[in-house]
C-alpha cells in the first residue's frame, strides 16, 4: 500500500519502540519520514533501515524535555509536514504517588504535555489544508482506565487525549484531522523485563496477548491516511479489547 505517497511525516520518539515501527510503516506506505529523538545512533539506524528498504527518511535530533527553544528548533528544522505523530513520552512505569519526586513530575509534564502542545502549535498552522494534514497522538489506555502506580503518567496521557478533542475542534475546520491511538500493553524493547506481569494481565482480555508495535503503527498509518478523511477527534484503542472488558481499577499495574 502507498497510502502516504507524496506526504511528509514527523514522528517524535521514533528511535525505538512504537515510534520506530510507525516511521518504518509510514515510509513503507510512501511517506518521506523524519525520525526524531535524543539517541542519534539509533536514529541513524532507523534511517538506514528505511533507506535500505527503498524508503525516504532523515534524522533530526531533539530533546523534547529541553524546553520551548528546543521544540522551536525542531519545528524550524522540519519546516512543513503533512503528518505529525506525537509519540515521544517520558515513561514513568509503576511508581507510587508518594514516592514520585518533583523532577519526575516535571519531566513527565514537560515531555508528555508541553512538548506535543508546543510542537503542534508550531507545525499545525503550516500543514496543508483540505484534508491531507493529520496529527496522530499516541495516548494510552492508561488515560481511560485507572491503574495503581500510574497516576502521573495517566494524567499526562489524559491531557493528550483532551488535546486531541480540542484540536479536532480547532484545526478540523482547516482540514487538519487530529486523532488519538490508545495502545494497550505493547511488546517493545523497554517492556521486556515486565513481560511476565504484562502477559498475566493480558491473559484476561480478548486477544490474550501483548500488542506488537507494528499493529499500533498500522492503526497510525490508517488514521494518517486519506482513508480516514472523515475521522476527527477519535480515540482508537489498540489493546486487544482490554479497555472494553476491564472494569476501572481492576488492574494493579500496567506497562507504561
Ligand atoms: N509500550 C507500551 O506498552 C505502551 C502502551 C501505551 C502507550 N504507549 C506509548 O507509546 C509511545 C512510545 O512508547 P514505547 O513503548 O515505544 O517506548 P520507547 O521505545 O521507550 O519509545 C519512547 C520514545 O520516546 C523518545 N523520547 C523519550 N523522551 C524523549 C525526549 N525527552 N525527547 C525526545 N524524545 C524522547 C525516545 O527516544 P530517545 O530516547 O532517543 O530520546 C523513544 O524513541 C509513548 O507515547 C508511550 O506512552 C506505550
Automatic annotation (TrEMBL):
UniProt name for this protein: SDR family oxidoreductase
PANTHER family, A to Z: OXIDOREDUCTASE, SHORT-CHAIN DEHYDROGENASE/REDUCTASE FAMILY (AFU_ORTHOLOGUE AFUA_5G02870), SHORT-CHAIN DEHYDROGENASE_REDUCTASE FAMILY PROTEIN
Top-rank lineage group of the source organism: Bacteria
Natural source organism: Dactylosporangium darangshiense
Keywords, comma-separated and alphabetical: Oxidoreductase
Membership in a protein family: Belongs to the short-chain dehydrogenases/reductases (SDR) family.
Entries under CDD domains matching the protein: SDR_c
UniProt cross-references to Pfam families, sorted A to Z: adh_short_C2
Amino acid at each position: 500500500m502507498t497510502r502516504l505517497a507524496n506526504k511528509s511525516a514527523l514522528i517524535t520518539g521514533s528511535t525505538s519502540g512504537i515510534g520506530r515501527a510507525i516511521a518504518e510503516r509510514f515510509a513503507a506506505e510512501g511517506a518521506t519520514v523524519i525520525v526524531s529523538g535524543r539517541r542519534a545512533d539509533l536514529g541513524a539506524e532507523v534511517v538506514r533501515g528505511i533507506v535500505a528498504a527503498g524508503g525516504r527518511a532523515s534524522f533530526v535530533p531533539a530533546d523534547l524535555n529541553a524546553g520551548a527553544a528546543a521544540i522551536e528548533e525542531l519545528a524550524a528544522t522540519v519546516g512543513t509536514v503533512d503528518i505529525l505523530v506525537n509519540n515521544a513520552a517520558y515513561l514513568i512505569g509503576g511508581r507510587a504517588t508518594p514516592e514520585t519526586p518533583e523532577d519526575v513530575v516535571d519531566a513527565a509534564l514537560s515531555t508528555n504535555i508541553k512538548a506535543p502542545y508546543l510542537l503542534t502549535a508550531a507545525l499545525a498552522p503550516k500543514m496543508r489544508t483540505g484534508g491531507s494534514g493529520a496529527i496522530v497522538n499516541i495516548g494510552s489506555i492508561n488515560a481511560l482506565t485507572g491503574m495503581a502506580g500510574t497516576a502521573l503518567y495517566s494524567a499526562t496521557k489524559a491531557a493528550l487525549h483532551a488535546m486531541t478533542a480540542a484540536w479536532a475542534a480547532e484545526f478540523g475546520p482547516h482540514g487538519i484531522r487530529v486523532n488519538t491511538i490508545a495502545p494497550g500493553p505493547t511488546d517493545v524493547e523497554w517492556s521486556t523485563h515486565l513481560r511476565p506481569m504484562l502477559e498475566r494481565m493480558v491473559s484476561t482480555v480478548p486477544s490474550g496477548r501483548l500488542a506488537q508495535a507494528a499493529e499500533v503503527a498500522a492503526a497510525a498509518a490508517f488514521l494518517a491516511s486519506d482513508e480516514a478523511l472523515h475521522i476527527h477527534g477519535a480515540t482508537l484503542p489498540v489493546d486487544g479489547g482490554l479497555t472494553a472488558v476491564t472494569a476501572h481499577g481492576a488492574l494493579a499495574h500496567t506497562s507504561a
